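look at this one:
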Amino acid sequence: MKRTFGEVLQMVNGSSLWDGDGKALTIKGVSTDSRTIRPGQLFVPLVGETFDGHTYVQQALEQGAAAAFWQKDRGEAPAGPVILVENTLDALQLLAHEYRKQLNVRVIGVTGSNGKTSTKDMIAAILTTTYRVHKTQGNFNNHIGLPLTLLQLEENTEMAVIEMGMSGRGEISLLSKLAEPEVVLITNIGEAHLEQLGSRDEIAKAKLEILHGLRGDGLFIYPGEEPLIAQYLPEAEKPESMLRLTYGETGENDFYPCAILQDGEGSYFALNNSPRTTYYLPVLGRHNIVNAIGAIAAAKYMGVSEAQIVRGLRELRLTGMRIERQKGVSGITVLNDSYNASPTSMKAALQLLHDLRGFRNKIAVLGDMLELGPNAEEYHREIGKYIDPRQVHAVYAYGPLSKQIITGASEVLPKDRVFWFETKKELCDALLPELRPEDAVLVKASRGMKMEEIVERLLKAYL
């Protein structure tokens, strides 16, 4: 964002005691972190339970910030180019919304319990072949991160791919109304946030809030095989003239695969409505093929040619720790999916392990899935029972809830092929002597389990 002090003042309906020339002072960019403030930026001091950014407003101005917000209930504002607002977070969100409305940018909003970051990356990779594109970086997908993402847009950005996360009801509604997307996509309705929302029904209702900001005749892309979307879509707040497209694995969808081949490094597939085109996806897993199909649907709507869609997917680079295929110094193959986990994504990762060919042994190293609510133990037992003993040689588990994975796995695998460990060190010490260079190891758990420590040791170990 590049605007004058006076323009920002007007955009947020603020006031100021500064007697400088508001038309002459140019603001370039916005930051909420005084530690990384750059000259010319607007500093927005946020207020939390244990911190108050107003403490650092003077410091930010001295470090070169062009201006700052100041919440009126925080006492006397420092002298200088300060904009007084009722609430700094509300002002940040309002500024982002007003800026978005001033741009001639087409926005695609993406949400879902699993796969939203990968799908965002896929959409952006395809669109980049044809347009000037900006996408959500890192985890900037909440009520603070999304406004900052919008404010990062260049004046000439043609397409913005915006990820929308949530911690409860109402948040996606807010994000969608801030971004005003032309296209919205839901990847799936999983079990993430069960602890906060209580049921998949409530999660479905929360995800459908992405329709609240959808522009008049915008497009809704969603998995046609998810019954909860079909159940709650009629009652969801949405534009009357909204267009719809479904995608998934079966012929009941508008977009579905008519051929799939996985070669150990990636996936080849064809679509029902483009049977003569072969797409290559340089990542593994049928779930990623489904994510790619949703991305293709969005790209086609945005006018990207078939050839550029093929090119964009082939050149895809996903955000880290989402089923990265890595080679250890010993030659073993590690499937690193340690970024996050839910029952849906855990089953998808295991299905990938089942589908892999050409390995001596395939081993699942699994950790706890967090924030699943009162039925967490049952979800973990189901994961254990999901494992195909014909395709997975052994299961190594870490974490208190993962004892239940072992309980479930013991029903389908011999007991001498299922192991639970109290520490990651004990797990690695037991696993490494059993491995050979021609083995594959899947590592999967919620981010809080820090399973990347196991991945690092597997990659560096000499067998």
